[in-house]
């Protein structure tokens, strides 16, 4: 295996071994604490522009299968692991992690002390980094990491350019795809919804022409302030059409109603985050992947009410509108990877749509 190195913008150099693609990689280095679910994580469009560090020490041991993709073409910039399993053992396995990354031209580096790297990120915040061959100049790689700017158009890169249907016989849902995980669509399909997936820059008029029962705002990468057009659309429809926002969708609902968001020091990425329902006290363990959060202090004077909080750090995890049929969560109720504790929120969305129509015709 060829020697490679991970060079961070602060000058830290970690030496390891290559797997996957042999090209260089530049991106924001983040960490994910999930013990399983690496296939779903690598194919999650919300990781666009990022290099993922897996904190679990062995990755790839059950291989890659046809069922656990969250997108067809992953957009992650690179993968960092302690140990990459050379052989996969699982009845669903169809190829190894190494062969998958080679096929998708994604570089990986193994042999890295991921516990040290995670502690570094937790202390200093996310860092830009480069995966490169060990014979390249460290000074040049450090300068590249410092000088290179992170992209601001990730949502445009992962969102579709045209609308397309996922037909069903039940409630009609317009799903705005800011970088949608396929598991969100699976949950709507499982409830027989007639889903129309639309681009990130869809207008309120385009949505109304489809006469939907509800609108779903998906997850997605990057800074929510980079899509101002979405805020105008949300403000236009939120009094008339029920809305359910997930992750980025949650942040966009907050911004559209006058609240603010901020970049977190190192974000939440994993499948074990405890979240409490403020009204009931119920605690769900949740799957999360976000580097921005809603500033609760900015909610004063808005029409939004806090519904959920993260128990580890107290950050905001859920909102609802005081008068309009709108609610959102920062975490991923569709799980994949992670627990399905919060799956009931999709049923709550179904009930919200039925109530808005004045009945329960789809129950």
Automatic annotation (TrEMBL):
Q: PROSITE patterns given for it? A: GATASE_TYPE_1 (PS51273)
InterPro entries on file: Anth_synth/Amidotransfase, CarbamoylP_synth_ssu, CarbamoylP_synth_ssu_N, CarbP_synth_ssu_N_sf, Class_I_gatase-like, CPSase_GATase1, GATASE
**Would I find ATP-binding among this entry's keywords?**
yes
What's a BP term from Gene Ontology annotated to this protein? 'de novo' pyrimidine nucleobase biosynthetic process
Where is L-glutamine annotated to bind? 46, 220, 222, 248, 251, 289, 291-292
- Active site per the UniProt annotation: 247, 332, 334
The reaction(s) catalysed by this protein are: hydrogencarbonate + L-glutamine + 2 ATP + H2O = carbamoyl phosphate + L-glutamate + 2 ADP + phosphate + 2 H(+); L-glutamine + H2O = L-glutamate + NH4(+)
| GO molecular-function terms, A-Z | ATP binding; carbamoyl-phosphate synthase (glutamine-hydrolyzing) activity; glutaminase activity
- Ranges for the Carbamoyl-phosphate synthase small subunit N-terminal domain? 2-132
For this UniProt record, the keywords arranged alphabetically read as follows: Amino-acid biosynthesis, Arginine biosynthesis, ATP-binding, Glutamine amidotransferase, Ligase, Nucleotide-binding, Pyrimidine biosynthesis
Q: In which pathway does it act?
A: Amino-acid biosynthesis; L-arginine biosynthesis; carbamoyl phosphate from bicarbonate: step 1/1; Pyrimidine metabolism; UMP biosynthesis via de novo pathway; (S)-dihydroorotate from bicarbonate: step 1/3
Q: What class of enzyme is it?
A: ligase
Q: What is its EC number?
A: 6.3.5.5
Specify whether Amino-acid biosynthesis is a keyword of the entry: yes
Q: Name one Pfam family in it.
A: GATase
Give the residue ranges for region: CPSase: 1-171
Signal sequence: where? none
CDD domains according to UniProt? GATase1_CPSase
On subunit structure and binding partners, the annotation says:
Composed of two chains; the small (or glutamine) chain promotes the hydrolysis of glutamine to ammonia, which is used by the large (or ammonia) chain to synthesize carbamoyl phosphate. Tetramer of heterodimers (alpha,beta)4.
Q: Which PANTHER family match?
A: CARBAMOYL-PHOSPHATE SYNTHASE SMALL CHAIN, MULTIFUNCTIONAL TRYPTOPHAN BIOSYNTHESIS PROTEIN-RELATED
Q: What does this protein do?
A: Small subunit of the glutamine-dependent carbamoyl phosphate synthetase (CPSase). CPSase catalyzes the formation of carbamoyl phosphate from the ammonia moiety of glutamine, carbonate, and phosphate donated by ATP, constituting the first step of 2 biosynthetic pathways, one leading to arginine and/or urea and the other to pyrimidine nucleotides. The small subunit (glutamine amidotransferase) binds and cleaves glutamine to supply the large subunit with the substrate ammonia.
Family designation: Belongs to the CarA family.
Designated name of the protein: Carbamoyl phosphate synthase small chain
Q: Which organism is it from?
A: Brochothrix campestris FSL F6-1037
């Amino acid at each position: 295996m060829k020697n490679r190195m991970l060079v961070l913008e602060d000058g830290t150099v970690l030496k390891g071994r290559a797997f996957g693609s042999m090209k260089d990689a530049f991106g924001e280095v983040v960490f994910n604490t999930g013990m399983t679910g690496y296939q779903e994580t690598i194919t999650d469009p919300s990781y666009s522009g990022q290099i993922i560090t897996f904190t679990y020490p062995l990755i790839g041991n059950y291989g890659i299968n046809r069922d656990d993709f969250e997108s067809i073409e992953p957009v992650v910039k690179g993968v960092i692991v302690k140990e990459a399993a050379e052989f996969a053992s699982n009845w669903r396995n169809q190829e190894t992690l190494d062969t998958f990354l080679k096929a998708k031209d994604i570089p990986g580096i193994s042999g890295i002390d991921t516990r040290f790297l995670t502690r570094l990120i937790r202390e200093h915040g996310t860092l830009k980094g480069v995966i490169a061959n060990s014979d390249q100049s460290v000074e040049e790689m450090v300068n590249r990491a410092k000088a290179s700017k992170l992209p601001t158009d990730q949502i445009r890169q992962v969102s579709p350019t045209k609308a397309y249907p996922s037909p069903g016989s039940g409630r009609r849902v317009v799903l705005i795809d800011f970088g949608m995980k396929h598991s969100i669509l699976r949950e709507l399909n499982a409830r027989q919804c007639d889903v129309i997936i639309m681009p990130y820059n869809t207008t309120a008029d385009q949505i109304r022409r489809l006469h939907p029962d509800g609108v779903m705002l998906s997850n997605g990468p990057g800074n929510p302030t980079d899509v101002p057009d979405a805020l105008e659309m949300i403000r236009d429809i939120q009094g008339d059409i029920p809305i359910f926002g997930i992750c980025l969708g949650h942040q966009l609902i907050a911004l559209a109603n006058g609240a603010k968001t901020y970049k977190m020091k190192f974000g939440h990425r994993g499948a074990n985050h405890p979240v409490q329902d403020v009204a009931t006290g119920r605690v769900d363990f949740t799957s999360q992947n976000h580097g921005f959060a809603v500033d609760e202090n900015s909610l004063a004077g808005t029409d939004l009410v806090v519904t959920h909080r993260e128990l580890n750090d107290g950050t905001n995890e859920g909102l609802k509108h005081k008068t309009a049929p709108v609610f959102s969560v920062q975490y991923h109720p569709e799980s994949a990877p992670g627990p399905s504790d919060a799956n009931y929120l999709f049923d709550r969305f179904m009930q919200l749509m039925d109530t808005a129509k004045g009945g329960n015709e789809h129950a």
